[in-house]
Amino acid sequence: MAAVIVVGAGVGGLSAAARLAAAGHRVTVFEQAGVVGGKLGRHERATEAGTFTFDTGPSLFTLPQVAAELFAATGGGGLDLTPLDPIVRHRFADGTVLDSAPGERFAERIAETLGADAAADWRRLWRRAGRVWEASWRHVLTSPVDPVRMAGLAWRLGDLAAIAPGRTLRGLGRTHLRDPRLRVLLDRYATYTGADPRRAPAALLAVPYAELAFGGWYLRGGLGTLAGALLERCAELGVVVRTGTAVRSIAVEGSRAAGVVLADGAVVPADVVVANADALHVYRDLLPAPRQARRLHARSLGGFVLLLGVQGRTPGLAHHTVLFPRDYDAEFDAIFGSAPSPAADPTVFVTVADDPLVRPEGYEAWFVLVNAAPQGPVDWPSVAPGYADRVLEVLAARGFDVRERLLFREVRTPADLEAATLSPGGAIYGTAAHGLLRPPNRAPVRGLFLVGGSVHPGGGLPLVMLSAKIVADLIGAG
Fold first, then answer.
1. Burial of 357 by CB count in 10 Å (0-12 exposed, 13-18 middle, 19+ buried)?
2. Element (H, E) at 210
3. Pairing mode, strands 89-91 and 320-323
4. For residue 388, which phi and psi values (nearest 5 degrees)?
5. Residue 157: per-residue pLDDT
6. How far is residue 154 from each of residues 158, 172, 186, 450, 455, measured CA to CA in Å?
């Protein structure tokens, strides 16, 4: 069995560590932060009223079967997941409210809210989405993929017409959906991968299918507790996890990864290295590999976040609520344009968990997210205070004025994410997903593998867990 070092204790790193340890490997994880979880962040704010707990990363759990398989494969129990209904409440600029739900229930709600024609359009698109999902699951999401293999695979796909290579998600929506509100709703799923829907591939139709076919779920106590569950599983399997220990570089002997060099200069040897870090950070800073790094400089969306302690209860909000602007394209123009800037009238995503474990009685803990350009093009430390005021103004204009009920507000910017997770630019998903392929899990250096949301098969908790399975299988195969 091999000695394995995992760089980074995010969900991908911990999942890979658990799988490899269950297979008999000796695994050590190095994490530069003082806690595990990576982008699956968790923040507590103590006040006189009590303690508020925020998920500062993902707040929606999908594809629960992926997590169930991970814990079963590593000898652990399941997760305490609660189904959400609605999965997401969508509030459009004209005041229309549409609640998403799994499967046919969503089509029925579309019919009730937007009319029979809109529901018929959605059902036709949904059938296509199912074909895209099946092809993606069989050939992409569960297998190692590189450009050479993908080129050879594409012509064999029976669902090639459904995947529509060369078309965009925006174009697909304009072809199939007559109601402009459904088009806006579909566009939003491109942002799940950090992309502009006007450039994102039509194959991303698999993203809403995954959410709406298998449902959205909440983990009691917050999704941040997933990191604790994975850490506990690793500990039971004998994985050594060293937090507060930064890795300076990946050691290479000949053409093979031979371990890591820590920040203090200590060299720790290993047979295999798994990097749970942004691919650009790996190839620019840890390896480095300039040819690979050059391909990764187009960064995905960042996130501008407000953490709010709100007095009282707020009618009209679901667990997840999206408040759309009148001009969605203006938001993408601001973020992805030649001179990126904060959107003046942004989409606002609000998470308010009705969970007494995350907020004091009589209060709400609001996580407010706005799509944002990465750090660098925008000097976020300078603009953050004023933009936080602007986001609260937008919330008020859309019917949720909490400015007089705030117990506190805290701000998180792409610059904060960059500092905390070493994700260049504070990009949530690494490289912008304006193509089908992310960097492969097998690095060009033998014995080095990449795991996490910035590499294949992509961002989001279940896909990150799938990347860990792909890496563990590749290591097992030699």
1. exposed
2. helix 206-214
3. parallel
4. -60, -40
5. 46
6. 9, 19, 25, 24, 20
- Angle between the 11-22 and 225-236 helix axes, to the nearest 10 degrees? 20
Measured CA to CA, the distance from residue 150 to residue 139 in angstroms comes to 9
Torsion sign across C-alpha atoms 297, 299, 304, 305: negative
Helix then strand count (H, E) for the chain reads 16, 19
Neighbours of 124 (CB within 10 A): 12
- In the block, tokens 């200069």 appear at 265
Measure the CA–CA gap between 337 and 380, rounded to whole angstroms.
17
Find where tokens 């999401």 sit: 141
Calculate helix-pair angle for 461-477, 64-73, nearest 10 degrees: 40
Measure the CA angle with vertex 74, ends 273 and 144; round to 5°: 50
CA torsion, ordered 67, 193, 141, 229, to nearest 10 deg = -20
Give residue for tokens 């806006």: 184
> For residues 419 and 67, what is the distance between their CA atoms, to the nearest angstrom?
28
Residue 387 dihedral angles phi and psi, to the nearest 5°? -70, -30
Which 3 state secondary structure label does DSSP give 447?
Answer: coil
Q: What is the pLDDT of residues 405-458, one digit of tens each?
A: 999 999 999 999 888 887 888 888 777 666 567 899 999 999 999 999 999 999
For 312, the enclosing helix (H) or strand (E) is none
Q: 155 falls in which pLDDT band (50, 70, 90)? A: very low
Higher local confidence (pLDDT), 198 or 159: 198
Whether the Cβ atoms of residue 270 and residue 260 lie closer than 8 Å to each other: yes
| Angle, helix 180-188 to helix 116-136, in steps of 10 degrees | 20
Q: Which two tokens stand for residue 29?
A: 């994880």
Which DSSP state fits 195? Answer: -
Tokens found for residue 221:
């106590």
For every residue of 233-301, DSSP letters joined together read: HHHHTT-EEEES--EEEEEEETTEEEEEEETTS-EEE-SEEEE-S-HHHIIIIIS--HHHHHTT-SB--
pLDDT band at 154 (very low <50, low <70, confident <90, very high): very low
CA-CA distance, 206 to 134, in Å (whole number)?
Answer: 9
Please answer whether residues 51 and 28 qualify as being in contact, where contact means their C-beta atoms are separated by less than 8 angstroms: no
What would you report as the CA-atom Rg of the chain, rounded to the nearest whole angstrom?
Answer: 22
The length of the chain, given as a count of residues: 478
Q: How far apart are the first and last CA of the chain?
A: 11
- Give the ranges where 337-413 is alpha helix by DSSP (H): 380-397
CA gap 454, 6 in Å, rounded: 16
Return d(Cα 60, Cα 58) in angstroms, integer: 6
Q: What is the pTM of this model?
A: 0.94
